[in-house]
């Protein structure tokens, strides 16, 4: 990971569950508009005795593989790192500090209200923030992806082509659909 003293490292925080085209479009836009050459995706995950928690149907290594496949296909592997951190909620944002490079810009998008709330929390913590405008992009959330799959929609339109074979090999489509009566 690059940790230059003068140039900030852009940091994205999320579950990336799974890493889909919406995530990629936001990451790509960030690299276009931010004054940095490097971005770190902090992927939150539930750790425990199993490889993943009840709401994380994809293990950390599966999500890292998806991200790596996309970055390699897009020629961005040298500009983006991924780091896995324990899942936390807004009152515990400060727990991230030991994982972060010295100078960071915490990034979020304007895709939904929860992302906008993050900016306010980060500003209260005194963190440098960037709100990435994605209003002109087709950005689907993982919740919308799961809902579409549950309704029988095809999954390939939501995922980067570089991940299609891997996602099929790990039986991703069926793992994304919650059991009847359970919402993920």
TrEMBL record:
- Where would I find the Cytidyltransferase-like domain in this sequence? 13-72
| Pfam families tied to this protein | CTP_transf_like (PF01467)
Please give the InterPro entries that the UniProt record associates with this protein. Answer: Cyt_trans-like, Rossmann-like_a/b/a_fold
Highest taxon in the source lineage: Bacteria
The protein here is known as Cytidyltransferase-like domain-containing protein
Annotated source species: Asanoa iriomotensis
